[in-house]
Amino acid sequence: MGQKRAVRGLYLRKGIWHIDKQVHGRRICQSTGTAEKAEAELFLAYVLERCRKHLLYGEPEQFTFEDAAVRYAQETTKKSLDRDLQDLKMVMPYIGHLLLPQVHSETLAPFIMSRKQEGVKSSTVNRTLTIVKLVLQQASGQYRDINGHPWLLSVPKIRRLDWHDTRKPYPISAREEACLMAVLSPDLQDIATFLIHTGLRARELCALEWAWERQDSPIVCFEISGEHTKNNQDKLVVCNRVARAIVESRRGNGSQFVFPSPKGGRRSDVKGTGWRSGRERAADLLELETGEKAPEGFRRLRVHDLRHTFGQRLRRCGVVNETRKDLLGHLNRDPTTGYSAVEVAELYRGVEALCRPVCWSNILGFPAKLPQESLNEEAVVR
Questions:
Q1: Class of domain 174-381
Q2: How far apart are CA 131 and CA 21, in angstroms?
Q3: How far apart are CA 284 and CA 49, in angstroms?
Q4: pTM surpassing 0.70?
Q5: Domains of the chain: which residue ranges?
Q6: Pair 135, 325: CB distance under 8 Å
Q7: 17 bridge partner residues
Q8: 251-288, pLDDT tens digit by residue?
Q9: Count of other CB atoms within 10 angstroms of residue 361
């Protein structure tokens, strides 16, 4: 149903003609990039002639970007492959049908303009362009046809975009944190609080397993291997009293993950509709309480801003730079060495400083003398 045949080897799919044909034992499957039957038939004739020259005379075979992207997806084992495939899926309608030498800045311009009109940040588009360049580099450096010719002779220079739209980090204040926690679901409350008190990246939190809990320490901490971290280095997550309470409340949750998805498996992400609607409600609540317009950074709060909050609060609590780098996972360490009990205790003192009520007076700029109820720990760090 829905497939209208033209000449042999062409079929219509979603309004676009596609090639599916066996040529000398090799199956050719690709889009013609056109909805016009006559153009599709001319393109098919061109592809068949190209294959004949390749087989008879050993001329370099021509491949489309889609061919290279499919092979990249099949052979790549990097941990961010799922994200790479999302980027490739977005750009495929624009360049998937093009031969590899035809992929360059000019043919990518319609994709770039479309994303800009959608309001996408230049850094997000740059990530997609980076994956496009990576596929082209693989086609040039590794992929070969049956005669040993590279799929692509040279990789074009694709300039990096800068629309001067980089969003600055937005560490939240104690008041903003209270507004956020008041409107989030209990599950997201736990997640947001845990991120603020451990500095984990969202991806690391989603992967956190009970099996990674360190059993030789009286302090609750987890060892995350490099395959689950951004910089591929092992990382120790040390829990202060607030983070420990969240961990203990989730013990025996029936999942291998500390923060599983509602179905019990690994959570794919944190920034879903619950997070997006929650930050809007939190901004509305802040405006209601203060009578002032909520900062745009808070209304568009990113999950990663909670990590920036963790780092800023550590600094304002007087935690030394080396300890902060350790807690954030920025310090290069020998992964075979690990952390001694003394080092774990030092890291624990660092994160435990976030639980001291006196820290918030520094963060909020309160005067030296405040009513005691203003410094209630549970109300501030919940």
A1: mainly alpha
A2: 29
A3: 64
A4: no
A5: 10-57, 65-141, 174-381
A6: no
A7: 12
A8: 999 999 999 999 999 998 898 899 999 999 999 999 99
A9: 16
